[in-house]
Specification:
With 138 residues, the protein is α+β, with helices and mostly antiparallel strands. The chain has one domain (2-15, 31-131). The protein has six helices and seven strands. Strands 3-2-1-4-7 form a five-stranded antiparallel beta sheet. It has a two-stranded antiparallel sheet with strand order 5-6. Strand 1 (2-5) and strand 2 (8-14) form a beta hairpin. The mean pLDDT is 81.
Length: 138
């Protein structure tokens, strides 16, 4: 599944061993956020998420790319699931904690790369937070 903020794809996710049943239900997914895409598009991403960020959340949509069974793509389910956009409010704290843990677990130089990216963009664009209309809390 593609993870999207508005029209921007910021990562992907996988749901393993999902059984569809009638009614509402929740299921965990494993996802990866492309931090370089996020930092490249930080200002429009923050502007699109402004109202949700004020409440401590990101609003993300998951759009199915393909449905597989035993490693074989199932066209019928893929077509149906592509039309079903799954929306979620993701707590920012959880997303940040999981992202940092993933970066540190995989490669600590990855964290430095992301921080350097943010620092360079911040210097080039100025104060991003004030430009999207969120007031600093002290």
């Amino acid at each position: 599944m593609d993870l999207k903020s508005k029209d921007l794809t910021i990562g992907n996710a996988t749901i393993n061993n999902l059984t569809l049943r009638p009614g509402n239900h929740s299921t965990p997914l494993e996802g990866v956020v492309d931090m370089h895409t996020v930092t490249e598009n930080l200002l429009p991403l923050l502007q699109a998420q402004r109202d949700f960020l004020r409440s401590g959340y990101l609003s993300l949509d998951a759009v199915t790319r393909e449905v597989e069974y035993d490693g074989v793509m199932i066209p019928y389910y893929t077509e149906v699931m592509r039309d079903l956009v799954l929306s979620a409010k993701v707590p920012v704290n959880d997303l940040l904690i999981n992202s940092v843990q993933g970066i540190l677990h995989d490669n600590s130089s990855g964290l430095q790369s992301v921080l350097d990216d943010i620092r360079e963009r911040s210097a080039a664009k100025g104060d991003i937070i004030s430009s999207i209309g969120i007031k600093h809390r002290r």
